[in-house]
Amino acid sequence: MTDTARTVELIVCDVICDHGLDVGDISTIEAVMQQIADGATLSGLGMDGVDVLEVIHRVEREFSIHLPDDAVTEESRAADIREIVSDLLVEKAQREARAESISQAWHDWPADEDESAVAGEETSVDPTWGGR
Predict the structure, then answer these.
(1) Is this prediction's pTM over 0.90?
(2) Which one of 19, 37, 108, 132 counts the least CB within 10 Å of its CB?
(3) Which has more confidence, 127 or 35?
């Protein structure tokens, strides 16, 4: 099991425990975790819309991502949420890598191209440009 999967399962379990949800005859956290691992839907675990919103909020906060609207519903399973989170984390890593390469390119930009203008030397202006 990946760290992402385990974290999602723990978040779902925490919401169940924190909200005092009735999960039928299941009385231990281990049994709740087994139900989650076995693929129970959030509604099957006793969650309503408010509980699902809490799961969404905690997942977004834990992974620093934003889940798409309606991505997680009462009929979602922890595995569904994990899959969405994993995809979003890959996209996030790709965006960060692109941003880093842009930042590095900006940092590596040759500074001496503009030094003549800063030093007060006259530069030629293209008369067809129309700039001032």
Answers:
(1) no
(2) 132
(3) 35
Q: Of 42, 41, 40, 45, which is closest to residue 23 (Cα–Cα)?
A: 45
8 contacts 81 by C-beta, under 8 angstroms: yes
As beta bridge partners, residue 41 has: 77
Q: Is the pLDDT of residue 51 over 90?
A: yes
Distance CA 132, CA 126 (A): 10
Please tell me the distance from the alpha carbon of residue 83 to that of residue 72, in angstroms, as a whole number.
11
CA–CA gap between residue 65 and residue 82 (Å, rounded): 13
Cα–Cα distance measured from residue 18 to residue 32, given in angstroms and rounded to the nearest whole number? 13
Radius of gyration of the CA atoms of the chain, in A: 26
Enumerate domains of the chain plus CATH numbers.
3-108 (1.10.1200)
Separation between Cα atoms, residue 80 and residue 113, nearest integer Å: 52
Do 23 and 35 form a contact (C-beta atoms < 8 A)?
Answer: yes
